[in-house]
Amino acid sequence: MISEWLVAVLLLIGGAFILIGSIGLVKMPDFFMRLHGPTKATTLGMASLLIAAMIYFTHSQQGFSVKEILISIFLLITAPISGYIMIKAAIHHKLAAKKGTKGLDNIEDD
User: Fold this and answer.
1) Is pTM, for the whole model, over 0.90?
2) What is the pLDDT of residues 77-104, one digit of tens each?
3) pLDDT, tens digit, for every residue of 46-76?
4) Residue 60 burial (CB < 10 Å; 0-12/13-18/19+)?
5) Going from the N-terminus, what domains does the chain have, and what CATH number goes with each?
6) Which residue of 2, 8, 14, 82 is most buried, as measured by CB atoms within 10 A?
């Protein structure tokens, strides 16, 4: 009974974070700000959904569910790396940022 409530709460939290990340992806004014939605909020939302799936499948089947742990590790390793690579590519191609963004003076060419 408690595990059902915990799964439901984790699913709602995960869905809310994914929704907030998706809205941020659409609403932010430039590429540098837009990248925060999928790399921050959506990663946290997916982690919450995967924890909920792990709890559900552990209680509904015999044994511990390892697939969700492997997916979580893969997601937590690849999301920051891909975000970093996209930011470096945007800086390399001198992609315009919104005027007034803090830190624009600190961007250096490699």
Assistant:
1) no
2) 888 888 889 889 988 988 877 776 666 5
3) 889 999 998 888 888 777 778 888 888 898 8
4) exposed
5) 2-97 (1.10.287)
6) 14
